[in-house]
Amino acid sequence: MNDGDEQLLRGRVYGRDHDDPDPGPKPGRTYAELVGGPLDGLLVDIHGWRNEEVDDGVALTTELSRWPGGRALYDPHPGEARKPGPGVACRFYYTGDTP
């Protein structure tokens, strides 16, 4: 990934197109920030997820992973504090890729 790709991803919500006129977070929604790996800086909408679902982390499809079209794996750090309510509530850290 080059610097241009990284700038394109910062602050954008995963799943929204880069040319979306408003690719950022929406008021009243809850997000996890992705840290490291190919999707570093993106936000994942976790609004309405149960704690158990957040604990499981995510496997996100991306062309930027080791296997294009594969999934980048992100998990929370055990015991890391979560902020209640809307906004960025927690972080998911890159743990690897899978086809």
Summarize the structure.
The protein has two helices and five strands, in the order H-E-E-H-E-E-E. The chain is of the alpha+beta class and 99 residues long. The model is unreliable at 1-9 (pLDDT under 50).
Task: Describe this structure as you would to a colleague.
By secondary structure, this protein is α+β, with helices and mostly antiparallel strands. 13% of the residues lie in helices and 32% in strands. It has two helices and five strands. It has helices at residues 3-9, 51-56; strands at residues 30-35, 43-45, 58-62, 70-75, 87-98. Strands 2-1-5-4-3 form a five-stranded mixed beta sheet. Strand 1 (30-35) and strand 2 form a beta hairpin. The protein is globular.
Residue-averaged pLDDT = 87
Class per helix and strand makeup: alpha+beta
SSE order, as H and E? HEEHEEE
What is the 3D shape? globular
Distance between the termini: 18 Å
Proportion of strand residues? 25-35%
How many strand segments?
A: 5
Please mark out the parts with pLDDT under 50 across 5 or more consecutive residues, or reply none: 1-9
**Number of helical regions:** 2
Helix content: 10-25%
Largest sheet: 5 strands, mixed
Major sheet strand order: 2-1-5-4-3
Provide the gyration radius in Å. 13 Å
Strands, helices and their partners?
Elements: H1 3-9, E1 30-35, E2 43-45, H2 51-56, E3 58-62, E4 70-75, E5 87-98
Parallel strand pairs: 1-5
Antiparallel strand pairs: 1-2, 3-4, 4-5
What key phrases describe this protein's structure?
5-stranded mixed beta sheet, single chain, 2 helices, alpha+beta, disordered N terminus, 99 residues
